[in-house]
Design brief:
Layout: E1 6-10, H1 25-37, E2 42-45, H2 57-71, E3 77-80, H3 86-98, E4 103-107, H4 116-128, E5 134-138, H5 140-143, H6 149-155, E6 161-166, H7 171-180, E7 187-190, H8 196-202, E8 206-208, H9 216-228, H10 231-239, H11 242-248, H12 255-263, H13 282-293
Parallel strand pairs: 1-2, 1-8, 2-3, 3-4, 4-5, 5-6, 6-7, 7-8
Helix pairs in contact: 1-2, 3-4, 4-6, 6-7, 8-9, 9-10, 12-13
């Protein structure tokens, strides 16, 4: 029985356009309702698109608690609690569990390279500090380190480690995680929106898809087509993710995604500094992309 299934949306964290770029709770509520109305199977706060790396621990817990309360059990809510410091990751994980998180996403420490033995120790200590399911998060382009299949196999023995999200975009890597977790109650989840169909074919149980902040229904319908074995419809819908992916490549994560949501009437504000506003000419490309999907804009 999979713990993580379907389309999980790593929601962007809305900010006000004030001096502190404070969190905009009203926009957060609007985005939660949009995502749920689009048929998503889960919401994930403070992943990469949620800008976990530029938010304080208190901001992350308070906003996640707000999201959990607004969702009110309609879908599971996962919270990103990983950190460079094991102590901080444990503290965050305990606080997120107390706030009502359904599960935790734990990124590997970044900045300093650590050994596999140290990484196993980190994941084990964090997972054993809580009772709810834990999802490991692999995104080597951001952390500078690809979690090895050997680490996954070892950490999969911890009772509440229930999955790994792979955002490497490398299907051989994803397959190595599937092999490492075989016979264990551990799901493999794809975090690369352009590879959802390929990952599903290998055995991924879920997709954590940033594009689903905006085009929720497209990604949800893609997953439904894959589950139903409708290859032609799945191929069409996988292709339908490309127009937004082309726009997202025009800026730093999640700069152009947030701008596109803003233009579509969801006031999520800017990405937080040091990421600045979108470059000149990007708005026109965002608007053309919204037109492609038939999304009304201002």
């Amino acid at each position: 029985m999979s713990t993580f299934k379907g389309v999980i949306v790593p929601m962007v964290t809305p900010f006000n356009r004030d001096e502190d770029q404070s969190i905009n709770y009203d926009a957060g509520e609007q985005l939660v309702e949009k995502i749920i109305a689009g048929g998503a199977d889960g919401i994930f706060t403070f992943g990469s698109n949620g800008e976990f790396h530029v938010c304080t621990p208190d901001e992350k817990i308070e906003f996640s608690k707000f999201v959990i309360e607004r969702v009110a059990g309609r879908v599971p809510v996962y919270v990103g609690t990983g950190a460079c410091s094991t102590r901080e990751a444990i503290d965050m994980s305990k606080r997120a569990e107390a706030a009502g998180a359904s599960a935790l996403s734990v990124i590997n420490p970044f900045f300093l390279g650590i050994t596999d033995a140290q990484l196993i120790n980190y994941f084990t200590m964090v997972a054993e500090s809580v009772k709810i399911p834990v999802l490991l998060y692999n995104i080597p382009k951001a952390t500078g380190h690809n979690i090895s299949a050997e680490v996954v196999a070892e950490v999969a023995q911890v009772d509440n480690v229930k999955g790994i999200k792979d955002s490497s975009g490398n299907m051989d890597n994803l397959q190595s995680y599937l092999d490492a977790s075989k016979g264990k109650d551990v799901d493999v989840i794809v975090g690369s929106d352009g590879k959802i169909s390929a990952a599903h074919a290998l055995g991924a149980t879920a997709a954590i898809a940033g594009t689903a902040n905006l085009i929720t229904e497209v990604v949800v319908n893609l997953w439904k087509a894959l589950e139903a074995g409708d290859a032609a419809e799945a191929e069409r819908l996988q292709g339908e993710i490309e127009p937004i992916r082309n726009v997202l490549h025009l800026g730093s994560t999640p700069q152009t995604l947030k701008r596109s949501l803003e233009l579509a009437g969801c006031p999520v504000g800017p990405a937080r500094y040091p990421v600045t506003g979108v470059d000149k000419g990007v708005d026109e490309k965002c608007l053309a992309m919204l037109d492609h999907y038939g999304i009304a804009h201002k």
